Request: fold
Amino acid sequence: MKLPIRRLIPGIALAAALAGGLLLTTNALAAHTTPAAPADGICGKNLACVIAFGNARIAERIAALQKLIGRINANTHLTSTQQAAIVGSANTAIAGLQTLQGTLDKETNITNARSDVKNIYVQFRIFVVQLPADYLQAYDDHLTNVQQKFVSKESEIQQDIQKAGSPGNTTQLYNDLVTQVTDAGNQIGAANGLFPNLVPANYPNTDGTKTQIRTDLRTAHSELHQAWQDLKSIITALKTASGTPTPGS
Amino acid sequence: MQSIHRVLSKDHRGRGLASAAAVVALGFALLLGGCGHNGQNSTGNGGGASVTTGQGNTSTGTTTGSTTTTTTGNPVAVQDLQSLSDSLSADFSDLSSEQTNATTDQTGSQQGVQP
Reply:
């Protein structure tokens, strides 16, 4: 018995339509009633996808840490000890990430792979804790050096003012300079006391610590800048008193 | 007469001692005056010649018969302070970018995405 093809086509089409409709309905129902579990995320059950995702996150973190290292090594305002401390901290984080990457790349179980990827965030907190802490430390170190520069020259500034007969308001300017420099030292000291709390294990409380350190250092920066303005005014007054031409006069 | 002579002799000896003491005192005074001369103020005699002693800025006023020179302060070499200020200028220039780096959080490209 041989059925002509032309008589079978309508039946095949109807069956295909019914099957397609059923499939769409099933999918729609599934999407509506059983949302994808967060653990499945964008990779679903694809282990290679999870590993590739983790490697990409590790790569961007290592790149950011290496950028930091480049900036610290190029920072001529820091002492070699200060540079070494920050670069060492960043290199420790890079080594940890590379170890984690080695573990991730060998995973054969997608659940374990997802756990490794999670650790990129929770163990290291590179963007939210590590890098801010390192950049803040560099800022703190530089401000410390500037503050010390002022302190080491305070007596010389005072002697020069007295030698010139304390012309104009140089005494008041000097007193303000000393006040600004002293308070800047206090602000930097307060920030230094908070740095030990700025570690990944303390996240998310690190947000408050970070904010406070930033406030302290910004204040110190502003005060040291004011001290510099005082110094510039003192220099102008001393030059005027001794008859030395000053820029703009 | 003898008693009168003894009294007069004592009187002469007393005057001699007093004169010697005055000479010593004058010597000390001159010595002290000489030490003090290298100070802030000095006075010279007239005739237009000014006497400048000590160090520092001086202003000279001439009056008839005398010239007075007064020291008001020292010229200060501010090169050291200017160098400090120039050095601080470089510091503050770079501190601005360091502040930006330290106060701006970075984020990853797939923040919050689950694989």
Q: What stands out?
A: The CA atoms of residues 86 and 92 of chain A lie 10 Å apart.
